[in-house]
UniProtKB/TrEMBL annotation:
Protein name: DUF3000 family protein
InterPro entries: DUF3000
Length: 212
């Protein structure tokens, strides 16, 4: 989270940013996990992983019978996954045009028809812009790439169905210290990539994070 620094060594600006993120509003379908942050991009960083899984209900018939009162469940399918990284450099960086930078990665599998859309990359970038706008997450110096990944199987995997994924890699600098809105916007993006319809209700608050 902070390159193993004690809480007393964390700058007030970064500590405030962590507190802002802990109050972000996100949809309950997105499950968060804190992961190791990159150590070379900035002196201070926080990294989160988020996944949207398909809800698979217990089946019917023989497989749905209880085994020790635990219903048989099929493995849930991952609809979309992403990474949210907050970087902080007290000295600032020229490329960022500020002290903070947000770096994101989102990947989702598409149905064949949507995967063939020639405007797919532009649509993916528009989802980012729209999500930030809807959450009033002011930003500048944004950049990124959207990539369509076509996977074909060969050899002993030749029987598996080919699939198309969309990947978005982007970064931007927040215009204010209200960083919770940026995490909320990113969470909305992951849910959009997962194919979930817009939902104003059903949000949850991230649990308050400790600095130690």
């Amino acid at each position: 989270m902070t390159n193993d620094r004690p809480a007393s060594a964390i700058p007030k600006a970064f500590a405030k940013a962590l507190d802002e993120l802990s109050h972000a509003k996100v949809r309950k379908e997105l499950k968060f996990t804190e992961i190791p942050a990159p150590g070379r991009l900035a002196p201070f960083a926080l990294a989160l992983s988020g996944d949207v899984m398909d809800v698979v209900a217990p089946g019917h018939g023989p497989q749905s019978q209880e085994i020790g009162r635990t219903p048989f469940l099929q493995p849930a399918e991952q609809l979309a996954t992403g990474r949210f990284i907050l970087l902080f450099d007290p000295a600032g960086q020229e490329l960022w045009n500020g002290q903070f930078r947000i770096v994101t990665y989102i990947r989702a599998r598409l149905d064949h028809e949507m995967g063939q859309d020639s405007m797919l990359a532009s649509v993916a970038w528009s989802w980012l812009e729209e999500a930030l706008r809807e959450r009033d997450a002011a930003y500048h110096s944004a950049g990124g790439t959207a990539t369509r990944v076509i996977s074909e199987s060969f050899g002993n995997l030749a029987g598996e169905q080919d699939h198309i994924d969309i990947e978005l890699r982007a970064s931007w600098s927040p215009d204010s210290d209200h960083l919770g809105a940026h995490l909320s916007a990113w969470a909305d993006m992951v849910c959009t990539f997962a194919g979930l319809p817009p939902l104003p209700e059903g949000v949850q608050q991230l649990p308050h994070r400790r600095l130690s």
